[in-house]
């Protein structure tokens, strides 16, 4: 089950990175269980965030910040929003609203049915070479 959860978490993050808004940090999905996930968001305010989510791009359900914690970065706080009542092996759409900021719409898949056989692979290249590109967030 841990491998399946990791596969879906990685797939969710890859999809989100492709749609990232360069001005704001990207929401992430973590803590996948049979019927819930957590959406994390790093922002510069402690104002509660709202996650709209559902099985269609029109959402239909909402959840609010469960807790938030200050980080080592000045004026930065990480919010944790728990999405519950999810179905196994289902694609969900979500977006985060906080104050007047609304993220793009993203999607993620929930965990597979226990016992489902899966295959996955992983590749990496740690060679720096002469054409290394370093991406940085604007400060």
Describe the structure.
With 139 residues, the chain is mainly beta. It has a single domain, classed as Sandwich (Immunoglobulin-like). 12% of the residues lie in helices and 33% in strands. The C terminus is likely disordered.
Give the helix/strand layout:
Elements: H1 2-18, E1 28-30, E2 36-43, E3 50-54, E4 61-64, E5 67-70, E6 77-84, E7 91-98, E8 101-102, E9 106-109
Antiparallel strand pairs: 1-2, 2-6, 3-4, 3-7, 5-6, 7-8, 7-9
Question: Could you give a short description of this structure?
Answer:
The chain has 139 residues and is mainly beta.
Mean pLDDT: 78
What is the strand tally? 9
| Beta fraction | 25-35%
The helix count comes to: 1
Order of helices and strands: HEEEEEEEEE
CATH topology: Immunoglobulin-like
Amino- and carboxy-terminal Cα gap: 39 Å
Biggest sheet architecture: 5 strands, antiparallel
CATH class annotation: Mainly Beta
CATH superfamily: Immunoglobulins
How many structural domains are formed by the residues?
1
CATH architectural arrangement: Sandwich
Share of helical residues: 10-25%
Task: Indicate the low-confidence ranges by residue numbers.
Answer: 4-24, 134-139
Structural class: mainly beta
Radius of gyration: 16 Å
Shape verdict: globular
């Amino acid at each position: 089950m841990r491998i399946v959860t990791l596969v879906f978490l990685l797939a969710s993050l890859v999809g989100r990175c492709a749609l990232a808004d360069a001005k704001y940090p990207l929401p992430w999905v973590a803590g996948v269980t049979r019927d819930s996930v957590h959406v994390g968001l790093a922002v510069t305010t402690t104002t509660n965030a709202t996650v709209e989510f559902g099985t269609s791009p029109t959402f239909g359900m909402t959840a609010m910040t469960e807790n938030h914690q200050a980080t080592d970065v000045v004026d930065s706080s990480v919010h944790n929003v728990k999405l519950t009542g999810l179905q196994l092996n289902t694609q969900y759409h979500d977006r985060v609203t906080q104050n007047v900021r609304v993220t793009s719409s993203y999607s993620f898949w929930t965990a597979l049915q226990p016992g489902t056989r899966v295959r996955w692979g992983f590749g990496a290249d740690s060679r720096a070479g002469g054409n290394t590109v370093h991406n940085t967030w604007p400060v």
